[in-house]
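Field log, afternoon session.

UNIT: design team B
ACTIVITY: writing a sequence onto a fixed backbone
BACKBONE:
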């Protein structure tokens, strides 16, 4: 009986290990993983809490609108990090504002800030589609154009 218990325990342990290591098939990353990735490289990064409800990130000011967002401070520079429901939405947003993205996240206010650009590239291997992925820009642009030209018919 003791051997059976060990085998069951081992099976459960392996199952939990593989379950926790598996990633979302769509590549969606949650904010806890993002935070862990960032603090492993630079533990001094800090979240900036809004002073009031009007001080937070306004997701409706982005196209497409983000799912959520927050501000962080790295050394002396601030950036806005936006969460999207899909990678494609994040890519569209990054193209629209000419900023960096990683999976379903966009890093606003990074372009032109060497500290922030270096950080998002190093930690997340973030891409700036307008500069780094011209084929993606063409592809998504063609999709948007074709959807827009058929809506009026």
């Amino acid at each position: 009986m003791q051997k059976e218990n060990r085998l069951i325990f081992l099976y459960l342990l392996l199952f939990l290990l593989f379950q926790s290591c598996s990633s979302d098939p769509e590549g969606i990353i949650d904010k806890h993983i993002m935070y862990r990735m960032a603090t492993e490289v630079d533990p001094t990064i800090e979240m900036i809490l809004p002073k009031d409800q009007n001080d937070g990130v306004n997701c409706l000011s982005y196209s497409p609108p983000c799912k959520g967002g927050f501000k962080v401070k790295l050394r002396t520079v601030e950036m806005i990090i936006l969460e999207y429901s899909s990678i494609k939405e994040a890519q569209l947003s990054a193209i629209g504002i000419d900023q960096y993205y990683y999976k379903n996240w966009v890093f606003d206010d990074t372009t032109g800030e060497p500290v922030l650009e270096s950080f998002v590239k190093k930690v997340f291997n973030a891409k700036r589609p307008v500069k780094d992925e011209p084929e993606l820009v063409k592809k998504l642009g063609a999709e948007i154009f074709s959807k827009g030209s058929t809506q009026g018919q």
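LOG NOTE: The two ends are 71 Å apart (CA to CA).
NEXT ACTIVITY: expression trials, pending approval
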